[in-house]
Amino acid sequence: MRTVDLIQRKRDGEELAPEEIQSLVDGYTRAEIPDYQMSAFLMAVCWQGMTDREVGALTASMLNSGERVDLSMVPGAKVDKHSTGGVGDKTSLIAAPLAAAAGAVVPMISGRSLGFTGGTLDKLEAIPGLRTNLTIDEFRAQLAAHKLAFIGQTEQVAPADGKLYSLRDATGTVESIALIASSIMSKKLAVGLDAIVLDVKVGAGAFMKKQVDARRLAQQMVAIGRRNDRRMQALITDMNQPLGFAVGNALEIMEVSQTLQNAGPVDLTRLSLELASRMIFLAKVAPTLDEAREMAQGRLLDGSGYRKFKEVIAAQGGNPKVMDQFELLPNATGMREIYSPRAGYVSAIDAALIGQASVLIGAGRDTKEDSIDPAVGVILEVKSGQKVDAGGVLCRIYYTGEERVDEAAEQVEDAFRISAAQPEERELILEVVG
Ligand code: URA
Question: How far apart are the first and last CA of the chain?
Fold first, then answer.
């Protein structure tokens, strides 16, 4: 079959057969199909969508592009958590150590920054020395010893997702229910997990802008997981304003440290605890969700989640002292404050604009070859609903090069809405699917 025919048929809204999808994914993974043809195909999927059968076939093809990671020799129930992508979303780095400290085994397979959203792997790699490219044997050994290990998709695990992920990032083809569902689930199914907790983001700073689309994405991933015998739950959560105060890799590690010491932002703490509770519950470490919530809260208050994270940083070659001495993390060399033009209430902080501004100054990638500047980002001084004075500081931009700071500052200024009336408080956790 000719690749161009498959592209044209998808462009015209036809359903492709599983073997046609398999041949596209195989051809691309083996570098027989060039980037430009795969980009055209991905764009056609963004416009036309995919049927459930096609999404199932795409997930299976990406999963079969690599090995399955057998974790049966690691004792205990295994649970992972994955987000569909947000701004300032560092919940994985808080929920995973809390769940592991409570007794769940957490083999965490994370992604890199995508579009205006951050990536757990990039955040972790802001920690000097920390390796996320563990071999499968190292991954297993670390899980057995510490109950928690972080890796990315690799040459061995869902390599097709790795290639497609960076191509999508550079071709405006991220925002697709079919592509997100298959990308996430191919990585998750490659690993011998018992349960998966998903955080499906909705709002300005998410790929899904409407709750109905977020629900569809959640339902699709839950269904794929269940068909593969995984216990599944998905939360649909608000991503209109950034989560917490910090956006940018090293800045987010600092906020993770504060949050694991129970001194973090309220929204970030609340969501991380809820995700950890669901991980503990689905791993059957606690018999009820309420007991799982007590456990997660207990691991936060007694500092064992914080100690677990430091233990895992050291196990992966990083310097755990960064959690107490932030000067050991990459630090920005310049800072610019953004002021409120008038007095009033912060009625919105557009998370996508804050995310894009962070990418502009180097916190994310413009092209798939770009490297990340771990030191840069934005720290909010206010959150939606708070009162500000005219000239009050709304946020601070941290940078290492001057080049794109003016452009980033304009985007950040545009992100804030200041109104005379206090806005209604938004729910953070909107729905549970599964
Ligand atoms: N996270 C992933 O792993 N893949 C996507 O496509 C989006 C978020």
Answer: 39
Catalogue all structural domains in the chain, each as residue range(s) with its CATH number: 3-49 (1.20.970.10), 79-326 (3.40.1030.10), 330-419 (3.90.1170.30)
Handedness of CA 322, 325, 326, 330 (dihedral sign): negative
Q: Judging by beta carbons within 10 Å of its beta carbon (0-12, 13-18, 19+), is residue 155 exposed, middle or buried?
A: exposed
How many of the other CB atoms lie within 10 Å of CB of 172? 12
- The C-alpha atoms of residue 414 and residue 295 are separated, in whole angstroms, by 41
- Using most ligand atoms within 8 A of CB, pick from 50, 81, 84, 175 the residue to mutate for ligand 1: 84
Low-confidence ranges of the chain (pLDDT < 70): 367-368
Predicted confidence at residue 368, as pLDDT, reads 61
- pLDDT of res. 112: 86
Ligand 1 atom index nearest CA of 179: 6
Strand partners, 200: 236
pLDDT of residue 152: 87
Q: How far is the CA of 210 from the centre of ligand 1 (A)?
A: 17
| pLDDT number for residue 166 | 86
135: its two tokens: 């071999």
C-alpha torsion angle, residues 269, 363, 207, 235 (rounded to 10): -20
- How far is Cα 140 from Cα 72, in angstroms, rounded to an integer? 10
- Among the listed residues 318, 339, 292, 264, the one whose alpha carbon sits nearest the alpha carbon of residue 94: 264
Angstrom distance (rounded) from CA 323 to CA 399:
21
Q: Which amino acid is at 396?
A: R
